[in-house]
Every structure is written in C-alpha cells, then in structure tokens.
Amino acid sequence: MLMQKNPIGWVEIPVHDMDRAEKFYEQFFGFKFQRQEEKNGYLMSFFPMDMTSYGSAAALVKGEYYTPSHQGSVVYFTAPDGSVEKALEKARVQSINIIVPKMNIGENGFIAMVEDSEGNRIAIHSMES
C-alpha cells in the first residue's frame, strides 16, 4: 500500500480584524504568528509551519474575498494541552462561544467546536477526552 500525503496543502482562515484574530489564536492555542505586509489588498498572518512535514500549513487572511462564517469548511486544530475537555475549560475561562460541546467520535477520539474572535466555526480534536 502506498502512503500518500494528506490532500489538504494550505488553509486560509478569514478575518475582519487581524490584531484581534492573532490575539485569539495566541491566547487559546499558544500560536505565534508571522505577519506579511499587505500586498494587493490582502493581509496575511502565518501560523507556525514546517512546509516539509505532512499536514497542512495555514494563515489568517484579511481581504476582499474573505468573510468569516459559521458556514462552509471547518478547520480542525489539535487540542491545546492535549485534551478537548481542557480546551473547553480554557474556552469557558476566556468567554469563547462553545458551539458544539465535547463529543465522543469513537476510535477517532473527541471533538468540540468553538467560535473564534472573527465569527468562524473552528473545531478542536484530541484522542483523549
């Protein structure tokens, strides 16, 4: 059997306010961003990434064709601190809107969904509760 790379190569998360979005992801997940100056009307801030590893890299993006939403695709982040329950405790302390509470998805672990600072629906996943 041939091993394939994950099919998603890049993710862009729409934002209205880049400073506020960076702060949300830094405080909740602990990410540090590398912001790119605005080019062609778009402002991007890159999540930490290793372009030689499996999985997808991502950026926050502000621009004409980017509208935060609860609709459409959902980005799943690995739970900070390794547990969905710990992530939801952190969300409650930070007054983050929990859209879908912790859900057991069987052998694939646990998920929950929250709303980021921009109104995007994002998911949290871990193998531990």
List the SSEs and their pairings.
Elements: E1 10-14, H1 18-29, E2 34-39, E3 42-46, E4 57-62, E5 75-78, H2 84-93, E6 98-104, E7 110-115, E8 121-126
Short précis:
The chain is an alpha/beta fold. Helix content is 17%, strand content 35%.
Q: What would you note in describing this structure?
A:
By secondary structure, the protein is an alpha/beta fold. It has a single domain (10-126), classed as 2,3-Dihydroxybiphenyl 1,2-Dioxygenase, domain 1 (Roll). Helix content is 17%, strand content 35%. The protein contains 2 helices and 8 strands. The strands form 2 sheets. The protein has a 4-stranded mixed beta sheet, covered by helices on one side. β2 and β3 (42-46) form a beta hairpin. The longest helix is centred in the N-terminal third of the chain and has 12 residues, at 18-29. The chain is globular.
- Please write the string of helix (H) and strand (E) elements: EHEEEEHEEE
Low-confidence stretches: none
**Strand pairing plus helix content: what structural class?**
alpha/beta
User: Which radius of gyration do the C-alpha atoms yield?
Assistant: 15 Å
CATH architecture: Roll
Q: Please, how many domains? A: 1
Distance between the termini: 32 Å
Q: Which topology does CATH recognise?
A: 2,3-Dihydroxybiphenyl 1,2-Dioxygenase, domain 1
Q: Count up the helices.
A: 2
Key structural traits:
alpha/beta; 129 residues; 2 helices; 4-stranded mixed beta sheet; 17% helix; globular
